[in-house]
Amino acid sequence: xxxxxxxxxxxxxxxxxxxxxxxADQRYLADEGLATAVFLALRLRRPIxxxxxxxxxxxxxxxxxxxxxxxxxxxxxxxxxxxxxxxVYEWDYSRQLLHLRAAEAAGATEGVAVSDLEDELYGERFxxxxxxxxxxxxxxDDASTPPVLLIDEVDRADDEFEAFLLEILSEYQVxxxxxxxxxxxxxxLVFLTSNATRELSEALKRRCLYLYIDYPDLExxxxxxxxxxxxxxxxxADQVARIVxxxxxxxxxxxxxxxxxxxxxxxxxxxxxxxxxxxxxxxxVNILLKYRTDIDKAVKEFADNQDELVPEGT
Amino acid sequence: xxxxxxxTHGGEKPLLDLLSDFIVELRRAGLPVSLTENLxxxxxxxxxxIEDREAFKYALGATLVKNxxxxxxxxxxxEVYFSLRGPEYDVxxxxxxxxxxxxxxxxxxxQQPQGGGGGMQALTPEQLAEMLFKALMNGDxxxxxxxxxxxxxxxxxxxxxxxxxxxxxxxxxxxxxELDDLLEQLMEASREDAPxxxxxxxxxxxxxxxxxxxxxLKREIEAEIRRRLVADRGVDAMAKTLRKPLPEDVDFMHAxxxxxxxxRKAIYPLTRKLAARLARKRRHGRKGALDFRSTMRHSLSxxxxxxxxxxxxxxxxxxxxxxxxxxSGSVAAFARFTLHLVYAIxxxxxxxxxYVFIDGLDxxxxxxxxxxxxxEAVHRVNTEADVVxxxxxxxxxxxxxxxxxxxxxxxxxxxxxLVLGDARNNYHASQSWILKEVQHRARKVYWLDPExxxxxxxxxSIVGEYGxxxxxxFEVRNLRQLEAFVEKLV
Lengths: 314, 490
What we know:
The complex is a heterodimer of chains A (314) and B (490).
Chain A: H1 16-25, H2 32-44, E1 48-51, H3 58-69, E2 73-77, H4 84-87, E3 89-91, H5 93-106, H6 114-121, E4 127-129, H7 131-138, E5 148-152, H8 159-171, E6 173-176, E7 180-183, E8 189-194, H9 202-207, E9 209-212, H10 218-228, H11 234-248, H12 258-270, H13 278-284, H14 292-302
Chain B: H1 15-28, H2 35-45, H3 53-64, H4 71-81, H5 117-121, H6 125-138, H7 141-156, H8 166-177, H9 179-193, H10 200-233, H11 235-242, H12 257-283, H13 292-299, E1 320-326, H14 332-344, E2 351-357, E3 361-363, H15 365-368, H16 374-384, H17 396-407, E4 415-420, H18 432-441, E5 444-449, H19 463-467, E6 472-475, H20 479-489
Parallel strand pairs in B: 1-2, 1-4, 4-5, 5-6
Antiparallel strand pairs in B: 2-3
């Protein structure tokens, strides 16, 4: 499917089922909730805020949508202390200084007016375009496919940055003092993701469509394993999905997420295990669970009658 | 039917009105739906074909529910307002649906539901039980839904106009189905059908699968009862009955077991968010001293000119905390949650020591030291702390006496003392002079009372007397207030 854009472009999508089918083409199995939210985001031209535990497929959804639409995929990874300079643009000071010094040394600065020199310094050459600016200006190139902008882990940024984001998401334009206003000719498709480590501001949530992505149910998890793990057969996929479901019902510090399920399935395939029994599960459980207390709990639950069962490495 | 003319059959309310009522009810349930979101929802549903109930629900969810903790409440209200009763949900005999595709959302149209059509009514109880067994063995979802409806028709004994709650009907229906025996029978059959002996792991997985299907059946039954009650009583009355407070608004002292379980689940994400917020607050605010090395490093890109000044983060001194908690009777839940919260954010404090009492007092810091699972430690406090001296009735005076005698030397000028309790002293001696001494020694003393303010100083509550020697007395009835207090504390 690489390189092919699906027959139905995101802008002609007629129903939620079209969205499910198109995302499935990109090997992303969306449930009805996500597909509806994406459908509405396309129709209403709104950003989507995806919240959920780590590893449930929030970032993957954005990537799948970008692959589907064929537009450029632009990612802004938020972190604590991120500011406008890191998100929108920055002037490459060092390069500007070097340019001046080089010009001086070459003797090119004599007789040139100061304002001309300055204009030269504030041109495209020295402008470092960061993700948000790229998303706003990319649309000019290809008239039919707007870019997909992913603002990842927005809950790690602080309140001021959120306010700034809100402004951008309402106006879709940013003003650079030296260059003027850059406005988007096409509204990009915006995804925001959050790991719910803090409450996002009301205003930002109001602006976006909201979806909480939970762990998938049995059938869907099985299908995801079948789609994403090469070499896995239906029985193993079924077993993996069932065991992970049972593990999630335990009271754990961190339940296994979808990415961990996939890692486990890949490991089992690699080890040539086509039927999971208590011993192989115990040996490989540290791929699913990352906390000692969780691993102990899980082993206790599933190896009740087998006292000789000891996880490798203890 | 297009949404340009959003009406339903038989002169029922137009869709837009129904949607407005729905949103009003959501607000009553505690969801903060703003005007913008209201308009978004109305616009969103114009893009969804009304027959697609799932998409309709998720469209409303995406525009109206912006906090996952509110999703359950949203679902309940949605079920009440938009319960679907079309015949395509019936499985009549061979599984064909009769009648046209009547997918209209039409709550309260007063029609008696088609409880599975003529075919099912004629089954004997034994045949019904057998069909149920087969459906659960095979995981036949459609059949389970139909059987759920039939079960409600037969066993719930619902009569129009009866002022009885849904839980009563649910209980009657489930009792008649004997679901516990059913699980064991399913496991037996599964063992017999298997080609070879099932390993413990396989047994466990089979059991989980059957439990899941039985839960699904119970949910279908519950939904069917709710649908019929809505038809009988009308949407608004039902919505009022089902309106439940959000977990963070549940009073500690009056919480039911289910609500307490919800609270326990809610407390983990809450402590995470609180810890993140507090950590952030510590680091921002006033800038600290100039960080010379960092400034010089950044000046390199300016050719050695310190154009950008870098400052150290201020590190205000972390307080020391002592928690003294009453764990008698109804106040116990409050004490548990507060201890849980305090220990979850214990890295905001330089030292945390905790004590629990009823009429005797015991230090429980040892249960929490170095322990990863705070819930476990709190449980141990309940079971292992030595807090009963005479008769297990609250005696604040004596408890404070023990505290002062054993631990007064540990209170220092950096210590903040939190006392948790309703101050209901059973008319024993108050010994409030101890609290006065504590206040002299400690930095601050705060009293947290889980009772509503109106009850303070009524009966045997002497919170006023104790409060005289405290720097603040706070009403902390629910998780929301607790969170607010802890945030102010740090």
